[in-house]
């Protein structure tokens, strides 16, 4: 039934006809007489059409028929409470039925407020009216009486006010002193008992009160741009003026049907539901608001009229909202900005990580080998980890090279890091064919370590170097590691094929700075050596090495390599 019928019946009802509450939510004080009803003209329509009328109250989410008692009485279009109690709070509805289907005529939410024992009114159950001094005004007692002769008494601030008993309290000229809380009390006789009904008005008289304004809905009829599948919330706000009318109500309808109430539980929400009615005050202005929530916009919703209706003081305003498909919006600025910032941060982090990985590449590889105990030597058929080639000429002016090759190098690599070196003077027995021995031992080794210096040139050293280069560049069986023991300014004395080796396979010895086990020299050398689990008895510093008495003595069985060959 269109809402217009209700509004017309409310407006044109006679002075003696009880006014039926149309607002969805009603507050009432406990212990007072109260009733719910719908217009009598609708009752006559239902009677002619052979309909039955049922009053229901929601219980555990289901509508249950109200059973009459001596206190709760239903008379077709009326449901009376003699009196109302706190337990009567809840959701009520009145339905008509023709025996085949039910139709809901109207719904209410009844909130029964507890009576203030120390006062004649409850602060949550009053209306405020703001008027300017010097004007005339009248306060109206809410018409809840059964008979016109029911006794009426007016109170101001809970004291009898000038023995006034009229339904309207008239003020010809308002003054500041007229401000106060006025309570109208109606005494009603029913079955030999006396009941009462009260209404309370807070009258505020101001010197410069704002002028009276008309009821209005904020904003004009509008079309809201949206997208299919998007959640949409429609807002309807009504401006009531400078006081809150007791009968103010605001609600939505969709093509002349009322939406369901939102339950607050997302998974149980209907596709379209109406939020609770909210009142607010900004300064001395009063507003009411109600939201209509559309969970997911459908194509069908684009063709519906969403109507917001505001009713108060027997006036009504209407606002119509329609949905239309909008253009796909660009990415919001804040999301775009956030994305760009994150992208820049990610790029910077990536650059820093690349720089760190390049700078500390050797340390990271050694750390990885140590953690996972990686061993590249298992099962490759090689006997030695490296063959050490250095200057063995008896006429060499530098003993340091031989001491480095025979003492420092094996002491660190063998005793601390578990490598096995092949040093010709130490590991090859005298008397054999030198050329065959060199070729054989290089072939048994995974690396060829060449200790380079300006004095490196000798027949045997060159043969070892050329054999290693052949293994590395042609046969690809052995990798070469160059240790620059002394600074070399000119490499022209070395074979040209040596230039084909990667530059990173050259490690520079820097004397005392390179002695500590954790120095960059030993890290770079271990990085070029095959991966092998490290021994646990690693020592820290070797600054006081005794290289003379305990060193491995070189083999001096022959100094002339050509004669040996």
TrEMBL record:
Transmembrane segments: 340-364
First and last residue of the signal peptide: 1-16
Annotated SUPFAM superfamilies: Immunoglobulin, Toll/Interleukin receptor TIR domain
Pfam families xrefs: Ig_2, TIR
SMART domains: IG, TIR
Domain of life, source organism: Eukaryota
Single GO MF annotation: interleukin-18 receptor activity
Keyword entries, A-Z: Disulfide bond, Glycoprotein, Hydrolase, Immunoglobulin domain, Membrane, NAD, Receptor, Repeat, Signal, Transmembrane, Transmembrane helix
Domain Ig-like: from-to ranges: 134-186, 210-319
Record-linked PROSITE patterns: IG_LIKE (PS50835), TIR (PS50104)
Transmembrane among keywords: yes
Membrane topology recorded in Swiss-Prot or TrEMBL: Single-pass type I membrane protein
GO CC, one annotated term: membrane
Keyword check for Manganese: no
GO BP terms, alphabetized: positive regulation of type II interferon production
Subcellular localization, as worded in the UniProt entry: Membrane
All residue ranges annotated as the TIR domain in the record: 382-529
Family: Belongs to the interleukin-1 receptor family.
PANTHER family: INTERLEUKIN-1 RECEPTOR FAMILY MEMBER, INTERLEUKIN-18 RECEPTOR 1
Protein name: Interleukin 18 receptor 1
Annotated organism of origin: Dromaius novaehollandiae
Gene: IL18R1
């Amino acid at each position: 039934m269109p809402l217009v019928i209700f509004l017309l019946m409310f407006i044109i009802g006679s002075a003696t006809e009880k006014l039926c509450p149309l607002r969805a939510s009603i507050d009432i004080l406990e212990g007072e007489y109260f009733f719910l009803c719908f217009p009598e003209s609708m009752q006559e329509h239902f009677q002619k059409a052979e309909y039955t009328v049922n009053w229901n109250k929601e219980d555990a989410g289901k509508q249950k028929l109200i059973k009459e008692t001596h206190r709760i009485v239903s008379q077709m279009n009326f449901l009376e409470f003699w009196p109302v109690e706190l337990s009567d709070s809840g959701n009520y509805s009145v339905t008509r039925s023709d025996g085949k289907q039910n139709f809901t005529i109207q719904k209410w939410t009844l909130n029964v407020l507890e009576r203030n024992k120390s006062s004649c009114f409850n602060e949550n159950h009053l209306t405020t009216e703001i008027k300017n001094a010097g004007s005339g005004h009248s306060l109206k007692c809410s018409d809840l009486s059964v008979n016109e002769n029911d006794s009426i008494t007016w109170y101001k601030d809970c004291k009898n006010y000038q023995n006034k008993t009229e339904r309207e309290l008239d003020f010809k000229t308002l003054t500041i002193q007229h401000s106060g809380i006025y309570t109208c009390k109606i005494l009603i006789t029913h079955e030999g008992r006396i009941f009462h009904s009260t209404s309370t008005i807070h009258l505020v008289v101001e010197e410069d009160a704002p002028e009276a304004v008309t009821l209005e809905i904020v904003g004009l009829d509008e079309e809201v741009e949206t997208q299919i599948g998007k959640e949409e919330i429609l807002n309807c706000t009504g401006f009531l003026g400078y006081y809150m009318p007791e009968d103010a109500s605001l609600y939505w309808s969709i093509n002349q049907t009322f939406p369901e109430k939102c339950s607050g539980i997302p998974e149980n929400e209907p596709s379209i539901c109406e939020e609770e009615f909210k009142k607010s005050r900004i300064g001395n202005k009063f507003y009411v608001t109600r939201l209509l929530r559309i969970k997911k916009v459908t194509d069908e919703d684009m063709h519906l009229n969403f109507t917001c209706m505001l009713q108060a003081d027997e006036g009504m305003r209407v606002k119509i909202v329609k949905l239309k498909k909008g253009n796909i919006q660009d990415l919001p600025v804040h999301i775009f900005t956030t994305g760009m910032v994150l992208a820049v941060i990610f790029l910077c982090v990536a650059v820093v990580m690349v720089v760190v990985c390049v700078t500390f590449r050797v340390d990271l590889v050694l750390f990885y080998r140590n953690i996972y105990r990686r061993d590249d030597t298992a099962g490759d058929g090689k006997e030695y980890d490296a063959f050490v080639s250095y200057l063995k000429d008896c006429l060499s002016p530098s003993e340091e090279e031989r001491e480095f090759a025979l003492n420092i190098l094996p002491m660190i690599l063998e005793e601390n890091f578990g490598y096995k070196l092949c040093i010709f003077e130490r590991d090859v027995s005298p008397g054999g064919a030198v050329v065959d021995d060199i070729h054989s031992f290089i072939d048994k080794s995974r690396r060829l370590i060449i200790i380079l210096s300006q004095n490196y040139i000798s027949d045997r050293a060159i043969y070892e170097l050329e054999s290693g280069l052949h293994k590395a560049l042609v046969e690809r069986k052995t990798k070469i590691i160059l240790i620059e023991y002394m600074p070399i300014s000119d490499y022209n004395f070395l074979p040209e094929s040596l230039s084909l080796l990667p530059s990173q396979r050259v490690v520079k010895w820097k004397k005392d700075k390179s002695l500590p086990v954790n120095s960059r020299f030993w890290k770079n050398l271990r990085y070029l050596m095959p991966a092998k689990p490290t021994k646990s008895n690693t020592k820290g510093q070797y600054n006081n090495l005794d290289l003379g008495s305990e060193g491995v003595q070189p083999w001096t069985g022959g100094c002339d390599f050509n004669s040996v060959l």
